[in-house]
Write a structure and sequence with these properties.
alpha+beta; 13 helices; globular
Length: 356
């Protein structure tokens, strides 16, 4: 029975004498019971487990969170555990950020040491740990909670949005703690964000909305799949299995290599005659939209992230994979632009990008 299995798992997690094997067996019993239980009972069980995310043993609390996250990745409602999980992560991030700030303040740069280096930071962190015990414990505890947090943020755009304020603290620790990097990345993911993408050379483009896209490698793939072609009998620009990976469908990677067909430019790269710089004009690199960046970095024009597509400067390739295995992505095309509509957008861009 699920209620009994849930109570047993909580009891083992709170029992200091219990072994890791005891905990594993209790979790397996919970999974077995949950597999045969009605949805409402499973939601209630997950909610019960989430009330113990704040127990003193961080590894045990993190194990309960990870158990819940496993259920979320199997399709259960993330919202039943979201609030206590975000509260715990928020508290830990705040304390960890305090430690990072104190470390930065304590570092004295010399000719031999650079304040931004990981080695110098780690030396400062270890030196400060005895006098900042709570913050040092939070720094270590984050390692137990980041995977459950990623699972919930992947499953719920609503929770991602409500937790976006955590990015500032995540940014403070991200140069020195991988948890900060990954939380900052996933909490920066845009949802239902309007875009306009135009290829000036062919006068083709779209108005659309993007969601769940973690980086511009992923965006590039979805643009290649979504931008129409003016040519008859045009083949797909990118294989379906590669598109599925970018959409969050199936495996996290396909094992294939993607070949880009465009340079992506910010809208201010447009010239007064409505054209883009030549492909071999490397002086225009400051206007490129780099694959390593994210959609949130793309400048906005009239409420839309604006992307211009030009001929590739070189053969750009990357592996077919996505950053977050369970984060679904989407590029919804709301309108395919006519040549006149594409021209209107290009004239608007040129007018606003050209200095008076």
């Amino acid at each position: 029975m699920l209620v009994d299995a849930t109570e047993a798992l909580i009891s083992v997690a709170r029992n200091k004498a219990a072994t890791d094997e005891d905990l594993r067996l209790a979790a397996q019993s919970f999974f077995n019971a949950a597999g045969n239980a009605p949805p409402d009972d499973v939601d209630a069980a997950l909610q019960s487990l989430s009330q113990h995310f704040d127990i003193n043993d961080d590894s045990r609390a993190g194990f309960l969170a990870l158990t819940c996250a496993t259920m979320i990745e199997r399709g259960w409602d993330p919202h039943v555990i979201a609030e206590p999980l975000v509260d715990r992560v928020s508290t830990l991030l705040k304390s960890a950020a305090e430690l990072a700030t104190a470390c930065a303040d304590s570092i004295v740069e010399t000719d031999d040491d650079h304040g931004g280096s990981v080695e110098v930071f780690e030396k400062a962190r270890k030196a400060l740990a005895p006098e900042m015990e709570q913050q040092a414990a939070a720094w270590n505890a984050l390692s137990h909670f980041w995977l459950p947090a990623i699972a919930v943020f992947s499953a719920s755009a609503e929770t991602r949005s409500s937790a976006r304020h955590l990015r500032s603290d995540a940014a403070k620790i991200s140069p020195y703690h991988e948890v900060g990097h990954w939380l900052q990345t996933i909490l920066g993911v845009l949802d239902n964000e309007p875009i306009v993408a135009i290829e000036p050379q062919g006068k083709i483009g779209i108005l659309g909305r993007i969601s769940g896209i973690a980086n511009n490698f992923q965006l590039n793939v979805l643009l290649m799949d979504s931008i129409p072609s003016r040519r008859f009998f045009a083949r797909r620009r990118v294989p379906k299995k590669v598109v599925d990976v970018a959409l969050g469908v199936g495996p996290q990677r396909s094992g294939g290599t993607v070949v880009g067909c465009w340079n992506l430019y910010a809208w201010k790269a447009i010239r007064s005659d409505g054209t883009l710089p030549a492909a071999n004009d490397y002086g225009s690199k400051n206007s490129w939209i780099w694959n390593e960046g994210s959609p949130a970095d793309i400048p906005v024009l009239d409420g839309r992230r604006a992307i211009l597509l030009g001929p590739p400067s070189y053969r750009r390739t990357w592996q077919s994979q996505r950053l977050f295995s369970s984060l679904p992505a989407r590029l919804a095309v709301d309108k395919v632009l006519s040549k006149d509509e594409a021209d209107d957008w290009l004239r608007k861009m040129a007018a606003k990008s050209t200095p008076d």
